[in-house]
Design a protein that fits this description.
262 residues; mainly alpha; Arc Repressor Mutant, subunit A; three-stranded antiparallel β-sheet; 6% strand; elongated
Length: 262
Amino acid sequence: MKIEKIKKTKSGKYKIELDDNISLITYDDVILENGLLYNHHIDAKTLNKINIDTKYYDIYNKTVKTILRRLRSEKEIDEYLDKNNVIASDKKKIINELKRIGLVNDITFAQAYVADKINLSNIGPDRIKADLIEHNIADVIIEKELSKFNTDLQNDKINKMLEKKIKTNHKYSSYMFKKKMLDELVNLGYKKELVILNLDNIDIKDDIINKECDKLYNTLSKKYSGYTLFNKLKQKLYQKGFTLSTINEVLDNYDFNSKEDI
């Protein structure tokens, strides 16, 4: 087969036109590796190799574009190539080349991942560590990068979250609020002991109990009165986490029917 023309396309690839109206699209690397600029005739064996090499560079360039959209760990690239049914030898070759040019680097990935989570999320160090372990990042790399997420930074994040939650808390008693926030912050990846220390330093007034009691009173008084109403209110408020002393103090302000039975 004779090469009639090689021309660059708008996409940056090259179109090789052969006689008999045969044409194929490939890459400059394929052209150079197969010496097509200096050989105007190719046989079936060379044509087959060109097709194989073109498929290799198709997936290689596709992988590069994937990394350029977002940094990937070596494990992610390995899984990505498996998903695209890349043979083991080509997969190893691609990963080694990407590592050589610095597009795949687990240290860089870990640095970027930790920085993003610290600056752009509320996730704590334990969650970040678990995520990095899932990416097969080495322990020594994880520990080094997480050292940047020091106690002062963690306390700052925890306090900001608590301040925001306190402002929007229209439902929970002091006890229930702290219990809820403890669970939430531990699930986010902060150490339980550190969260408790921060929770102990905040003061949450239980004035919300007045609104809760009014709401419950208006509902329950339609069905109950006297001692039964008092008991129902007391039970509901206790279930919401208010202390008995606070409950009794608030209930003293309410006028119950047949209060002498209380």
